[in-house]
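Entry 14. Structure prediction run on the chain below.
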Amino acid sequence: MSERKDFVASFDSDSRKTAVRVAFVTRRKSPHVKVHDDDYVMTFPEALFRGAVAVEILALLLVLLSLFWNAPLEKLADPLETPNPAKAPWYFLGLQELLHYFPPVVAGVLIPTLVLIALIVIPYFKINVQAEGLWTRNRSARLRILALTVALFAVFLIAFNVYAVLIPTLLMAGFMFFAATNRAASGRFHRWLASKPLSFWIMSWFLIQAAVLTLIGTFFRGPGWSLVMPWSGDI
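Output returned:
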């Protein structure tokens, strides 16, 4: 037989704190749960209005920039003359920089596919849904997982001489280890880092890495995709 459950009646207004089945709410109390829920912003009109304002401001800024600076257009395309270096548009230069280090299948197919899958899956992580700091619970186990992941990733990048990815990765890992330290008198910056969830760290690493690869491909690649200085005039 199943365990018997007693149904107890009580006078209280906090249904989460008092585990009862029946509660009589008097005139001086309200059937109210005493918790601090997160604030919500409605998609319409609040979020939609903010997005529309941001788009309008960005459009005005681009129009003002176009009035003072001309677009860096080159001469008409000539099939008999291939520019050296032949650079993709700026939003593909990070991918073109990866093609310099990895085989085309890895840089052009495998890595973009993994990035897209990660962007789809990461928001559904349980740790991200809870919106808690990465180091709030299971600090020791998560530190070991982070150290092992960074070590394996570093070995892989060193084997292919991809220091453009290795250095930002090590810097990001350093900030993560710094956030994991348990300091009695921590500053505001340390508390801010410690409160960030896993999704924040992954997205920050991805954005920083994309920016670094794009900047290298834009300003530091010359003829034959060799490294040059931006002021050399060989870009």
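The CA atoms of residues 94 and 213 lie 5 Å apart.
Filed with the rest of this week's runs.
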